[in-house]
């Protein structure tokens, strides 16, 4: 009975198509495309992730006071507040260029953001390596914090006056020195916060206050934690690194040197730590066949779905990236993804803003205790990449 009805319906439609004039067929076709596109837009709008609002307690931090005790909660400095005010003023004057607006001056030379979710067992080791390097290379006692001892790149039009870099208008301006660490506890249920503060206390009064710890009430995901930390950095340069210590932290010097080579006239730039040179090494070959298969499949998907410059990055997922301060307003306010795929969105935003990006080989080693589920998280990353690309392409996400 059902096949007969279906056959009759198909015959009726076929006859109608034969008898319909061409302009009507074209109209039906365009209408169908419109309905399908609107349906797809609605679908992407529904499934595209929207970051939750930031809670008041998440805009504060704690650190170790001079007397060795844990401080009360203090407000984090939010560079975007001043940036937004400048943007409103520029809009009123008809000057809408982000390059004209600028970002407030850095207070320190290097900021490190560490996203941490239940990392009480691995965080201390990573922090020791990081802080030892930061203090050695960018400590306050280092004259004019630079790239491993060589004077950093001067702003365009700047001159040197009495050892200080002068701005283009001739006013001497001492470049920022020092470092800071922002640890973002991403809804941790263990002693991650205590571990971070205990480590800070072990540094003594001189450096303890440079470690700031912020607690997110609920887990946002690695991308959400990194983005949150980047909102409050005070550094001329900001790097984020995984809490597991898998990346060789002293390679930050390499990232900085390469970034200073590619910075544009506004000082914007990004360097991406890369493990691509390790493909084929014993460290990678001894991984399971499934893990290597999924890795290569993800790279193929990136090549298909992302714009050219992002697709050219051989290792988008390495958790060791350095961004110059002037580049932050073009990237951080527009981040949506809070999952593992956030690195790709960061690179796509940099590409859209024509920010120079380069890949830098770094040392890396496998660390036990990874929270990554190879199969399910790989599938989630593939789905997240598809939704992310569609959301930006269709205007669900925008830069307004």
Question: How do you describe this structure in short?
Answer:
By secondary structure, this protein is of the alpha/beta class.
Structure characterization notes:
The protein is of the alpha/beta class and 400 residues long. The protein is 42% helix and 14% strand. The protein is built from 14 helices and 12 strands. The protein has helices at 2-19, 22-47, 79-92, 98-101, 123-138, 192-202, 205-208, 222-230, 252-262, 282-285, 289-305, 308-311, 342-352, 374-393; strands spanning 60-61, 74-75, 108-116, 159-161, 164-166, 172-173, 179-186, 211-216, 235-241, 270-274, 320-324, 357-361. Strand 5 and strand 6 form a beta hairpin. Mean pLDDT is 83; it is low at 149-171.
Structural class: alpha/beta
Largest sheet: 7 strands, mixed
The stretches of 5 or more residues where confidence is low (pLDDT under 50) are: 149-171
Tell me, briefly, the overall form: elongated
Helix content: 40-55%
Strand content: 5-15%
Total number of helices: 14
**Measured distance between first and last alpha carbons:** 56 Å
Order of helices and strands: HHEEHHEHEEEEHHEHEHEHHHEHEH
Number of strands: 12
Cα-based radius of gyration, to the nearest Å: 25 Å
Strands of the largest sheet, in order across it?
8-7-3-9-11-10-12
Output mean pLDDT. 83
